[in-house]
Specification:
Layout (H helix, E strand, L loop, with lengths): L53 E4 L3 H12 L4 E5 L3 E3 L4 H4 L10 E3 H5 L3 E3 L2 E5 L4 E4 L4 E3 L2 E4 L3 E2 L12 H15 L1 E3 L2 E3 L4 E6 L8 H13 L11 H7 L1 E6 L11 H13 L3 E4 L18 E4 L5 E4 L1 E4 L4 E2 L32 E3 L12 H19 L14 E4 L5 E5 L2 E3 L1 H9 L4 H7 L6
Parallel strand pairs: 1-2, 1-9, 2-5, 9-20, 13-14, 13-18, 14-15
Antiparallel strand pairs: 3-4, 6-7, 7-8, 10-19, 11-12, 16-17, 21-22, 22-23
The chain binds flavin-adenine dinucleotide.
Flavin-adenine dinucleotide binds next to helix 1, strand 2, helix 2, helix 5 and helix 8.
Catalytic activity: menaquinone-4 + NADH + H(+) = menaquinol-4 + NAD(+); menadione + NADH + H(+) = menadiol + NAD(+); ubiquinone-10 + NADH + H(+) = ubiquinol-10 + NAD(+); phylloquinone + NADH + H(+) = phylloquinol + NAD(+)
Family: Belongs to the FAD-dependent oxidoreductase family.
Pfam families: Pyr_redox_2
Length: about 450
């Protein structure tokens, strides 16, 4: 993990001349052109921020943390995301069952970052010309690049589509309607059962399990605004089955006592668990859509009749933006190999943070924020010729929220119970932290 000092200076290449990389393309509103006359690659980096223009690809937890720090330090940057608003996906599953909640989970980028935000899908990186290529032909020049494209996964846990805020919120409100079937007499829980599927996770990480658990938890009915009001009523009318291919629930890095408690909480909530069973007819199943009858089959011959199937089988690294540029810098799951300073191996001015960085730790929003701190500090340090900061993965902290009033977790290797998890996470799911980072007030 040998690191490189000196930011872009380490490349031994010349900056794109003004206009280069934008040839024949529209210049983005508010976009500053880096001043190439002051910034010769292979020489010392100028501290003049006029020579610096950071492009951040991906406005997830890592991207918004990096953008707000650059903004606070007056360092020129452009945040690019295919969506027009940040998605607080940590609360995506509550938004799927609680009407009116989704609007708290999408936060406009342009209100916070104004002309420093550009909506667009990145389809490639031109390493020779130091530009980020957008669908539609536009190219954004960079002196430093932060790749924060995160991961994709099945809806409703993730929402990775080119979309506007209104449509994204509506997708979750529609999901709430699938979960609750409304008749002419008023809102009732029409589903007799729902199935959350866990088929093993792509990353070998926590998300598959977390998603399943959150789905099961959410469908279990601790939805305070529910027309039926109490979780007890919901549980009576609504059977949730969680199918999981492994014998134990939750992440393998968690303490056995935490994993056991997860199981017990779900059982107490009335969730039916089918463990060590794998769904065998997944391709035929309608996902996230209420139906009068759906038959789910497992490899052990079990059949479950249900009305709604929610897929929670893990996430995949979203490498489409950088795959062709960094083909030989990719781990087998598509994550970017980075050194201890979070620089993509071999590139002193390109950083990878969050889920798309190949770091041996669970993929978590919290970690993405810590990575952003390091990447921004190192961009500043490289400009000022200071030593770079190394990233050191810390002890595992994991809070599993199981409804608004329940949960379990571990902090630095120690078991923490319901009260702590409830106070620290379950009520708010860290939504207020994201609104604070975006310096906006929640609706
Ligand atoms: C249901 C669920 C619950 C979770 N709960 C927790 C939790 O409680 N605590 C926790 O710490 N972590 C949790 N996580 C994990 C956490 O959400 C992720 O680790 C976190 O989102 C990673 O942040 P990121 O910035 O790397 O990427 P992401 O949040 O995935 O964001 C990536 C962004 O990049 C954009 N993007 C991708 N490709 C392109 C492209 N080509 N062009 C333009 N834009 C692009 C996407 O639109 C997206 O906005 C949960 C995840 C899920 C799915």
């Amino acid at each position: 993990m040998g690191g490189t000092r000196g930011g872009a200076a380490g490349l031994g290449q010349r900056w794109a001349r003004p206009g280069q990389g934008l040839r024949g393309r529209r210049k983005t509103r508010g976009q500053r052109q880096p001043n190439s006359t002051q910034f010769e690659m292979g020489s010392q980096v100028s501290v003049d921020t006029g020579a610096v223009h950071v492009v951040i690809v991906g406005g997830g937890f890592g991207g918004i943390a990096a953008a707000s720090q650059l903004q606070a330090q007056n360092i020129p940057f452009m945040l690019v995301d295919m969506k027009d608003s940040f998605h607080h996906n940590v609360a995506a599953l509550r938004a799927s069952v609680e009407s009116g909640f989704a609007k708290k989970t999408f936060i406009s980028y342009s209100v916070t970052f104004r002309d420093n935000f550009r909506q667009g899908k990145v389809i490639g990186i031109d390493l020779k010309n130091h530009t980020v290529l957008l669908q539609g032909g536009e190219a954004l020049p960079f002196s430093h690049l932060i790749l924060a494209t995160g991961s994709t996964g099945p809806f409703p846990g993730k929402f990775n589509e080119v979309s506007c805020q209104e449509a994204a919120i509506q997708a979750y409100e529609d999901m709430v309607k699938q979960v609750r079937h409304t008749d002419g007499c008023g809102a009732v829980w029409a589903g007799q059962s729902a199935v959350a599927l866990e088929q093993g996770d792509y990353l070998g990480g926590p998300h598959g399990c977390q998603n399943s658990l959150r789905s099961a938890e959410s469908l279990g009915g601790e939805t305070q605004d529910s027309p039926l009001n109490t979780c007890v009523v919901c549980l009576c009318l609504f059977q949730v089955t969680l199918i999981h291919s492994k014998v134990q629930l939750a992440d393998k890095e968690l303490l056995p006592s935490v994993r056991q408690e997860v199981k017990e909480i779900l059982l107490r909530k009335g969730v039916q668990l089918l463990l060590s069973e794998r769904v065998s007819n997944l391709e035929e199943l309608p996902l996230s859509e209420f139906r009068d009858y759906i038959k789910v089959q497992t490899d052990k011959g079990t059949e479950v009749a249900t009305n709604l199937v929610i897929l929670c089988n893990g996430i995949k690294i979203n490498s489409s933006a950088y795959h062709s540029a960094f083909e030989n810098r990719l781990a087998s799951n598509g994550a970017l190999k980075v050194n201890e300073f979070l620089q993509v191996e071999g590139y002193s001015n390109i950083y990878a943070i969050g889920d798309c960085a190949d770091i041996k730790e669970p993929k978590m929003a919290y970690h993405a924020g810590l990575h952003a701190n390091i990447a921004v500090a190192n961009i500043v340090n490289s400009m000022k010729q200071r030593p770079l900061k190394a990233y050191k993965p810390g002890a595992l902290t994991f809070l599993l929220s199981l409804g608004r009033n329940d949960g379990v977790g571990q902090i630095s290797g120690y078991y923490v119970g319901r009260l702590m998890v409830r106070l620290a996470k379950s009520r708010d799911l860290f939504i207020s932290t994201s609104w604070k980072t975006m310096r906006q007030s929640p609706p």
